[in-house]
Specification:
- With 811 residues, this protein is α/β, with parallel strands linked by helices.
- The chain is built from 28 helices and 18 strands.
- Strands 3, 4, 5, 6, 7, 8, 11, 12, 13, 14, 17 and 18 form a twelve-stranded mixed sheet that branches. A two-stranded antiparallel ribbon has the order 1-2. A two-stranded parallel ribbon has the order 9-10.
- Helix 19 (528-535) packs antiparallel against helix 22.
- The protein is extended and about 120 Å long.
- Residues 1-11 have a biased composition (Basic and acidic residues).
Length: 811
């Protein structure tokens, strides 16, 4: 972070990172400016999500203060409110509560009325017969100053208490009491929940201790008698029942056992602790500071940056900051918080206000937006999840959004021409990444298909138009590498990575045997025409290079060149194949490109790994389809090579509008490693047939996000269906069976009914079972996805999954 709020725009190599030709939208401010310079009443193009630029000064503040609850992957968090669907109890649930209860009441009535006979079980627990007889008869005892008759073993083992306990357990196990209580009591807010639980507990105590409630008029529930009987048997020789302390303790234990489930139901303890904590907070010295909205920058105030917070609050309220400015300042503060850069942060904010740490291009917004963005959450809205049967409840009619958290696992999109891949996916994602690049969080490289550039030219810092003489920038084929082996591997992947006849490893070795000696002599890598001559074995070029190496005394590079010369023309030599493929780029239209010495400034993709740049590469048009595929593979290989260098704070993403021919065995292996390198790719294909069949499975396994647009073929759909797998679902089958009557009258009625209705008398046989079914079958993907829709599955870099669901891309 520099003191003047700018960034160094030069890369780690010799060539500087280019800037756009247009003037910046915000004028530069001298370092010695004493205060924030006057600004217009509204920053140009200050669009808050979810739509367009604000028309009132409070629009950005409202966007900042909007709640963004945590949601599952792919859900548009801005304005997201999960729908609370009330739990509806099915009639069978209510019946499941009443039927066991009625049966238990009937059984208890028959038991108490004597219709169900019972007798003492001849259980001999003690050897002396008098012990058994003394324990099984009613025995008078002195309890609290009066003589009562307490039952013995018969009350404990086979009397009302045991039978009543069996009935209670049966009702609790067979009935749906838990669902009923959770629906009517468990979902109530406090204190109503605690009050209802207290009333239910009072009713239960009234059933257990009716004598404590005057005018109750019912017999006590047999809970205390079995406990008293057990106490008599265990304390017969100690005469503890005469002690009021012992009996009161026994009654207290019974009361606590009755109250315990109701205390759990009413959440009495959490409610009491919450009240106590609130009371302590209210009695604490000093009034707590109210919660400030995000538009007042509470994080800065908590860190002691009150002056900076007041200035930024005024900037937001006055409409002089847009969403890009807010996201950029928050990112810089998060990096500087608690460190030595806190002072520099305060000074820069006081000097430049919302224009601090502006992107090196000087831009504070895109000239035009076509999608809905939320830069605080890092999301772009692409549509709406369809409320289908197989969609989880949080996704019903929620917005569908993408961000770096899911793009970091890479995304594969397959759909025919006209299905909307570019319009509904590639362009919104590229626009979102370009906006996040202005905040310093992202770097984007977009490769446009021939004749269809992605986005406006003003939305990018670097535009490379291959084959266009008016192009300001050129593409370095070696990615500004200093290592001949690395440069050879990149170029070999681009030239022969899609061929089965030539191995990429052998091609890289052949190229390295030429690139190393040439660089040792000339201090640079050869241009493409020079490299082609060397690969074809041009005697004049090889002789001159050999003599230069002999004169320099570099024996290592001379041996490398001699090995290449010996292999030239041999069976299986990769040099001829490399030269033929290189001829696609050695055309007159590309004479001034790829380091050919034209007026265009060379651009290295390596700068993306160090700076949040916005780069667009336009492929050549008409008649150069194969050359465009070679360039696409070259860009993909260079991107893989540069993003693995060092630790990078910003996210890097490569967007391929047409990835035809770009997917190779080597690129699939490298895509799997991008997740750990804070990078990702977006691959758009018309059909999986553009990828070698052997790579269909590995490609689906390498990416974490998959998207099937409407109109895919069943062959492409079968690959998605295999990747998404199966799930267990509950199916209901209804079979109709004809009823055959045995009685003459019944047969006559059935015949009359068939004569009147024309249908035989049948009965339904319903079968419910769990079956394993594909989440999306190939036929459903090919024929059941409506136009303007797609099936999308997501995986975040943390490993959280979203199942394949239908997305309406037009909403």
């Amino acid at each position: 972070m520099d003191g003047d709020g700018t960034r160094d725009t030069r890369g780690t190599h010799a060539n500087p990172v280019p800037r756009p030709a247009g003037p910046p939208q915000v004028p530069a401010v001298p370092q010695d400016a004493p205060a924030v310079p006057p600004r217009p009443s509204r920053a140009p193009g200050a669009p808050p999500p979810p739509d367009r630029a604000p028309r009132s000064p409070s629009a950005v503040a409202a966007w900042l203060d909007a709640e963004r609850p945590a949601a599952r992957p792919g859900i548009w968090r801005y304005g997201y409110r999960p729908k609370e669907v009330p739990e509806r109890l099915a009639p069978v649930t209510v019946v499941g509560m009443l039927v066991p209860l009625l049966l238990a009441i009937g059984a208890w009535s028959l038991w108490r009325s004597g219709y169900v006979p019972y007798k003492q079980v001849p259980l001999r627990m003690f050897t002396p017969d008098d012990w058994w007889e003394a324990a099984s008869v009613a025995t008078p005892r002195q309890v609290e100053g009066r003589t009562v008759t307490l039952p013995g073993w018969d009350a404990l083992m086979v009397y009302d208490g045991v039978f009543f306990a069996v009935l209670v357990l049966a009702v609790g196990a067979l009935g749906s009491w838990r669902a009923i209580v959770r629906h009517y009591v468990g979902r109530m807010p406090q204190p109503a929940r605690a009050l209802v639980a207290a009333l239910l507990a009072l009713l239960a105590l009234g059933l257990v201790f009716p004598d404590a409630f005057p005018g109750a008029g019912w017999s006590p529930v047999p809970v205390v008698d079995p406990l008293l009987s057990l106490t008599v048997l265990l304390t017969d020789s100690y005469d503890l029942m005469a002690s009021s302390l012992f009996t009161n303790t026994l009654y207290t234990v019974v009361t606590l056992l009755v109250l315990w489930p109701f205390a759990r139901l009413g959440a009495w303890w959490p409610y009491a602790t919450g009240l106590l904590a609130a009371r302590r907070a209210s009695t604490a010295p000093g009034d707590p500071e109210p919660v400030r909205p995000r538009s007042q920058w509470p994080a800065l105030r908590d860190a002691g940056q009150h002056e900076a917070a007041e200035l930024l609050t005024a900037e937001v309220a006055g409409g002089r900051m847009n969403d890009v400015d807010c996201a950029r300042v928050e990112r810089v503060f998060a990096e500087a918080r608690g460190g030595a850069a806190a002072g520099a942060f305060r000074d820069t904010v006081l000097r430049r206000g919302g224009a601090a740490w502006t992107h090196p291009s000087g831009a504070r917004d895109l000239p035009r937006r076509t999608a809905r963005h939320d830069l605080l959450a890092g999301q772009v809205r692409i549509g709406r999840w369809v409320a289908a049967e197989r969609a989880p409840q949080p996704y019903h009619d929620a917005g569908a959004a993408l961000g770096p958290d899911v793009l970091g696992t890479s995304l594969l999109a397959v759909g025919p021409s006209g299905s909307g891949k570019t319009r509904t996916l590639v362009e919104p994602v590229t626009e979102a990444l370009a906006l996040q690049a202005l905040t310093g969080r992202c770097a984007v490289v977009a490769v446009s298909a021939a004749g269809s550039p992605i986005g406006a030219d003003d939305a990018f810092d670097v535009i490379v138009r291959i084959g266009d003489p008016s192009s300001v920038h050129d593409l370095d084929p070696y990615a500004e590498s200093d290592d001949p082996d690395e440069a050879a591997a990149i170029l070999a992947e681009a030239l022969v990575g899609d061929l089965d006849t030539a191995g990429a490893q052998g091609a890289a070795t052949a190229l390295a045997q030429l690139l190393g000696p040439f660089r040792a002599v000339h201090g640079r890598f050869p241009s493409l025409p020079e490299l082609r001559e060397l690969l074809e074995g041009e005697e004049r070029s090889l002789t001159a290079l050999r003599e230069a190496l002999a004169a320099s005394g570099d024996d290592v590079m001379r041996r490398e060149l001699e090995a290449r010369v010996r292999q030239t023309g041999a069976p299986g030599d990769a040099g001829r194949t490399l030269a033929d493929r290189l001829a696609l780029l050695n055309r007159p239209v590309f004479a001034d490109f790829f380091g050919g010495g034209g007026p265009s400034r060379p651009f290295s993709l390596r700068a993306v790994a160090h700076h949040p740049l916005r780069v667009r590469i336009d492929l050549p048009e008409r008649g150069h389809e194969e050359a465009g595929r070679v360039i696409t593979r070259l860009v993909l290989a260079q991107f893989h090579a540069v993003v693995r260098e060092g630790r990078r704070a910003h996210f890097a993403c490569l967007v391929l509008d047409d990835a035809t021919g770009a997917v190779t065995a080597g690129s699939v292996r490298r895509i799997q490693r991008l997740r750990s390198q804070n990078a990702g790719v977006l691959l758009a294909l018309r059909t999986l047939g553009d990828v070698p069949e052997a790579l269909h499975g590995p490609l689906h396994g390498a990416v974490g996000c998959r998207m099937a647009f409407c109109g895919v073929t069943t062959w492409d759909g079968s690959r998605f269906a295999q990747t998404w797998g199966t799930e267990w679902v509950e199916t209901t089958e209804v079979a109709k069976h004809t009823v055959f009557a045995d009685q003459p009258m019944t047969r006559a009625l059935h015949a009359l009914r068939k004569l009147l209705t024309g249908k035989a008398v049948t009965t339904d046989a319903v079968t419910v079972r769990q079956v394993e079914r594909e989440r999306w079958s190939a036929s459903e993907l090919a024929h059941a996805v409506p136009p303007g829709h797609a099936v999308l599955s997501l995986t975040t870099v943390e490993g959280e999954h979203a199942p394949p669901l239908l997305v309406n891309l037009r909403d």
